[in-house]
Structures are given as structure tokens and as C-alpha cells.
Automatic annotation (TrEMBL):
It comes from Microbacterium galbinum. InterPro entries: FHA_dom (IPR000253), SMAD_FHA_dom_sf (IPR008984). Residues 251-275 are annotated as: Disordered. Keywords: Membrane, Phosphoprotein, Transmembrane, Transmembrane helix. SUPFAM superfamilies: SMAD/FHA domain. This is FHA domain-containing protein. The keyword Transmembrane applies. The chain crosses the membrane at residues 29-49, 55-75. PROSITE patterns: FHA_DOMAIN (PS50006).
Amino acid sequence: MSTAGKTDGGVDAFVYSVRADTRAWCPALVSDTLTVLVPLICAVLTSAAREPLAGAGLVLLTLGIAGGQVIALAYDGRSLGARMFGLRIVERSSGCPSGRLLVADLVGRRLRVLDIRRGRDPISSAVALYRFPERAAAQHPPARATNTVVLLDSGQRLPFARALVVGRNPTTDARGEQRFSWPDLSRTLSKTHARLEWDGESVWVTDLGSANGTAMEVGVERASLDPFVPTRMPADAVLWLGDRSLTIAGSRRDRRGASDAADDGDEAARGVHHA
């Protein structure tokens, strides 16, 4: 289960995260309140019993506990109660702890409480772009590792040699990886939406935490892809990136001739950038 929320780069920070229900966050809130309230009550009772030094010590202890709770919540997203009940409190927009903006986020109701025992921790390394192994050259002989061509719904043909990242304005940190900026006025396509990898025999597709998801249609069946999980694309499949679609050239939906393929391939190649 994934909650809604995207980073500025179009990556869903809450992939596989689960929002905490009242049965989880209420006990955590009560626990945090008691850790501050109990020593404060003891400080008041001690002062009333004419033990000023002990009372002052308990007041300092109360302030220390409260300050520690606030700092832990601001910079780790986990107070004592949150740790006890497996919770993480983060910003809705970034999936990260608030830091110095904790008070503003509390007032503006911009925080989200997640159950990290039941779902993924939003600040884990899994939110980073998937790093793919260099497998094509090792598993396939050079004769089979030829270019493949993707047919876009606009009619363009897009050749690529090994790996291609597609989106409105995609970024990649992999050396030699191609990227294609696909204009999309509907904005159903994320800035960095999906990755296509050609291993010499098949095209593998990976959704990169896109906002509107990636789906694969084969015949009458259409299934959404899990984010960051490479999935093999059959030759006759249609890949949906938001509201945009593409196929592998040569599939049953590809009706254009080889001469058109070469012309469009040269045209599309001019829009492909190398990392």
C-alpha cells in the first residue's frame, strides 16, 4: 500500500509506506505525554512538600525530557513513543523529518504519521533510484546486443543501445545511459518516469516511483508495475506511462515500414541525450 505524496523530482517518497491508524499513534501520543507529565507532577508535589532542591531537579529533568523528545521528533521523526510503537513522523511533501520547520509543519498540518512495522520506512535508501547491474554484456554475445527501437504513441521511433530513461525531463546518474525528454502537456508523465533496458533479447521496464504509475497491457489484460522492480516486456505488449503509451518496434501494433522506421529513428535520436 502506498500513500499519496511526491517529491519535486516526481519520485514517490511513500512507495510501500503505510499510514498509521489511531490504534498506533494514540498509544504513542499518550506515552510521549506521560514521559513529560509524570516528572512534572512529581516536581510540583515535591515543591509542595517543601523540598525545593528536589523539585528544581525534577523540573530540569522534565525540561530535558521534553527537549529531547522535540529534537528526536524534528531530526529523526521518532519520539520515544514513536519508537515504542514503530512509527515515523515526516513531512507530506518530502517524506523526511521536519528539522527546524517542525513547529510550522505542526501548525500547518503538513506532517504524516507512518507505521514502519507494517510498511516501508520513507527515509530508507529504497527511495533512491534503482541501480541496475551491468548484465547485458556478460550474459549475451556481442552479436545479439544490437539496438532496439521503441515506438511512441506520437509515431516517433526511438532507438537505444542498452538503457533508456523516459520522462518529461529525466535525470540519471548511470554512465552511458540514454535519456529521452518526452513532451507531455497533460503532465501525467513524471519528470523521471521509467527506465527501459535492452539486454540483447528482451526489454526490461522499471517504474522509477512515478506519480501516475506504469502499466503493461498484453491483449485485454492490463497490470500496473511495482515501483523499482524490473519487469520483462513481451514483444506484443503496450506500455502505459501515465496517459502516454509505447510499444517495441516490430510488435503486432507496429504497422509502419522499415524505411519509415529509419527516418523516424534518425529524427527521434536527435531528442535522446546521453548521461
